[in-house]
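pasting for ref
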Amino acid sequence: MVVTGDIDLWAKNFPSEYIPAVIRLILNSWQTFKFACDLLEVPMTRSFCAHLRSNKNHLLDFFRIDWESNEIDNRGNITGRIDLKFSQGLDEKVYFSIECKRLRAIFPSGFDSLASKYVTDGMSRYFNGQYAKGLDRGGMLGYVMDGNCNEAVEDVQKAIEKRRLNLYMEEKETLKASSCIASKQVKETLHRYGPTNRFIIYHVFLPMSITPNAN
């Protein structure tokens, strides 16, 4: 029998003490994840979700992991589709969501950092009502296609600083080291948004291998 301790099943936010566990699970699982030949965001995230579930410590990690979960409003309208959803408790509106995006990819037309899309098609979803409404935290996961996480962080930082106003960030706020876990691959941003006027996005940068492994 697993003892869950002092878990609040009707908590109004995903427990902050679980965030480091989620991020460590992602970082550790990435070390053993074998990429499929299809390196597009959707199939890659689906495979990675299955790998996360397999690696989860069921005695310590008291959260569920779902892939492409639809978020709906009170009338049943779909407001967004969450790439990775971590939930704990009984309230369907309480979860920790992660939006997954590729970064620094090469297309037939040439190289693209994709940092702008990371911001406008990723981070912005936390501020336009698509999901995490009423919550105080969210996540971004960047698949760094050329493996250069340092450059990816710089690309994203520049893209964020160009759009501070749209991201509800104060003038000097930027992408910075995470306060919850010590890793160069993990950053965070602070936004004046939500019920407490304080919304944190955790950013995890995952380097892709140049040559994918076969499953």
